Amino acid sequence: MALVGFAYNLDIKDTSFLKRQFETVGQLTEEVLAYAIHYPREFAALPAVQEAILKHLEEDRDRDAP
C-alpha cells in the first residue's frame, strides 16, 4: 500500500484505471524487492545512511550467494 501512496492520479474516480494500477503494483511487489528507509533529514546523516544501505545490500548479496 505504501507504493500506491506514491502514485499521482489525475482522476480518482476512474475505477478502471485504479484497478489496473492496483494490480500492477501488486505484481511489482511480487517481482521486485523494495525497502523503506527512515533517517534524520539532515545532510550530516547522509554518509551513515549510505553506509547502512550498502551494508544491507552486501548482506543480502552474501545471503543469496550459492
Pick out the low-confidence regions.
Answer: none
Report the radius of gyration as a whole number of Å. 17 Å
Can you tell me the overall shape? flat
Order of helices and strands: HHH
Terminal CA distance reads: 33 Å
Total DSSP helices: 3
Helicity, as a percent range: 55-70%
Structure classification: mainly alpha
- Total count of domains: 2
Give the number of DSSP strands: 0
For the biggest sheet, the summary is: none
Protein architecture, described:
This protein is mainly alpha-helical. It has two domains: 1-34, no CATH class; 35-66. It is built from three helices and no strands. The relative contact order is 0.10. The model has no long low-confidence stretch (mean pLDDT 89).
Properties at a glance:
mainly alpha, 0% strand, 3 helices
Summary, kept brief:
The protein is an all-alpha fold and 66 residues long.
Explain the layout of strands and helices.
Elements: H1 2-5, H2 15-31, H3 46-64
